[in-house]
Amino acid sequence: MATLCRLSGRCVLSSRLGLRFCSSSPLIRAFSSDSGSPDGALPSGGNKPSSSGTSDSPDPASDAPSPDRPLSGFAAAFQLQSSIRREAESSLAGDSASSPGQDQSFASLLRRSPLMQMGPAKDKVVVGRIFHVVQDDLYVDFGGKFHCVCRRPKDGEKLQRGGRVRVRIQDSELTARFIGAQTDTTLLEAQAVLLGAIEGKEGRSNMD
Amino acid sequence: MAARAMTRGILGLRHSRAVTFGYSCGGSHYATAASIKPPPPQNEDVSDKIMKLPLEKPDFFRVSELFSLKDLFDARVHLGHKKGCRHRLMEPYLYGCRLDQDIIDLDQTVEHFQQALNFTAHVAYRGGIILFVTRRRQFGHLVETTAKDCGEYAHTRYWQGGLLTNAPIQYGPGVRLPDLIVFLSTLNNVFQPHVGIRDAAKMNIPTVGVVDSNCNPSLVTYPVPGNDDTPAAIELYCRLFKMTINRAKDKRRQMELLHSLSAPSTPS
Predict the structure, then answer these.
(1) Which of the four pLDDT bands, split at 50, 70 and 90, describes residue B37?
(2) What average pLDDT does the segment B89-114 reach?
(3) How far apart are CA B116 and CA B186, in angstroms?
(4) Which residues 153-192 in chain A show a CB within 8 A of chain B?
(5) pLDDT-derived band at A198, boundaries 50, 70, 90
(6) Neighbouring-strand partners of residue A151
(7) Which of A9, B169, B205, B256 could form a disulfide with B200 if both were Cys (CB 3.0 to 4.6 A apart)?
(8) Are the Cβ atoms of B70 and A175 closer than 8 angstroms?
(9) Over residues A12-32, mean pLDDT
(10) How far apart are the C-alpha atoms of A11 and B165, rounded to whole Å?
(11) How far apart, in whole angstroms, are the C-alpha atoms of residue A26 and residue A4?
């Protein structure tokens, strides 16, 4: 604001002295990049537009803005838009500079996580990975807190450790409050129904 | 046993402190009777400097660079048990409850974990014995290999009643107890608090413990609120503890080399 006031003050002074030919140039200089001005105390609101190619602004305000009156009309709109553009550019630069996801808050990470977006876990179909096999029992990890244990289907010979399967979750953690207990008893397991394997690169015709 | 080791440490510290006071006032060396014994004060100075230097900065071992909030999030550290399993004293550490599942506040976890890792690093730097304890059979092997990789100890089996409190009789006189116990899970197989937490508090041994939403964080010196049921989370903790301890031990070796090289060069 100080720079604008200084140049506008000069303009007011010159117009008072009757020098009308220089009334427009200080205003244009005020709108364009004033990097050449030695004013150290720059205003915090951002009177300094980042792009210098703004000297071709349309006709400035017919009346010279006085230092006491706040910006209005084109001046206010230009200030607002230039600050918005600067913030957008700085945020883009900030995102690309820092590693992606490092500056995300826990709240935003949580809200955008698949677990939250999924909603209630009942009857949701998810993709899991088999991480342990005990004869006929498949331990499937689908991204929740616990794994689920499914029985191998009759024709599931190809379901081995590391395979990806589709499961329908019934409960993300099997807990129940028994009579006389202070807290729930938990089984440390989820419950899910195995729907079938996820087909890999080769497509089979008759597999479910 | 721990009391005896502690008094020995305190006496040693007092002795070295008195000697350094006597010498630091002097400044330059005079040809007095005090100059007869320069070599031991040099070693005391060096060992004092080695011990005191890490204490001058809040994060001397830079453990805050070892992990980020995103790493914790990807390892599902924020997932807690169901609402019915919640322990009342864990409520300050919870962010909230979503569809009956507790969510642990990772902002608090980051701070607590940094403090716990920093403390572990300092204990390892000073040559302390660290004991990893968990009663989860699913992760017993992982914890044992972690302890072996960083040159420390692990106890993932049944905890004998007098392991810490009756050690001189069970293991022989003069046995050295651990200086830090790290619990990867603070519950035993019947969902009760592990006996080691209470015993370590009795024996003045500091503890670091990962407390889930159904655990009691009271007696743990450095609780780390976090998930202790998912393999990804436990692998993350083990990896971070291993990195911290190795980093601290390497730093100690480096400092000793540096100061042992510089000690003879000082004029006596």
Answers:
(1) low
(2) 96
(3) 15
(4) 172-173, 175, 177, 183-186, 188
(5) confident
(6) A137
(7) B205
(8) no
(9) 47
(10) 88
(11) 9
Angle at which helices A2-16 and A24-31 cross, to 10°: 170
A39 touches chain B (CB under 8 A): no
d(CA A130, CA A141): 6
Tokens of B97: 């409850």
In this predicted structure, what is the pLDDT of residue A49?
44
Averaged pLDDT of chain B:
87
For B88, the closest chain A residue by CA position comes to A183
Amino acid A60 reads P
- Residue A81's H or E segment, with its range, is helix A74-97
Q: Which residues of B touch A100 (CB under 8 A)?
A: none
For residue B93, what are the β-bridge partners?
A: none
**Residue showing tokens 């600050």:** A83
Please state the rounded mean pLDDT for residues B31-48: 65
Task: Give me the residue label for tokens 């040099």.
Answer: B42
Q: Which member of A110, A119, A177 has the closest CB to residue B84?
A: A177
A145 touches chain B (CB under 8 A): yes
Shortest Cα distance, chain A CAs vs residue B233, angstroms: 10
Q: What is the dihedral of CA B33, B36, B40, B44, to 10 degrees?
A: 40
Q: Which residues, including other chains, have CB under 8 Å from residue B223's CB and lie 6 or more apart?
A: B93, B112, B209, B211, B217
Q: What ipTM score was computed for the predicted complex, to two decimals?
A: 0.77
Q: Is A103 at the interface with chain B, CB within 8 A?
A: no
Triad A116, A119, A120: Cα angle to 5°: 130
d(CA B163, CA B15): 33
Nearest Cβ partner for B99 among A120, A141, A145 = A120
Per-residue three-class SS string for B31-72: CCHHHHCCHHHHHHHHHHHHHHHHHHCCCCCCHHHCCCHHHH
Tell me how close the Cα of B232 comes to any Cα of chain A, in angstroms.
10
Residue B163 tokens, joined: 């392991």
B213 or B261: whose pLDDT is higher? B213
| Pick from A134, A110, A13: nearest CA to A67 | A13
Contact status, residue B130 vs residue B182, Cβ threshold 8 Å? yes
Give the gap in angstroms from C-alpha A190 to the nearest C-alpha of chain B.
Answer: 11
CB-CB contact of B115 with B221 (8 Å): no
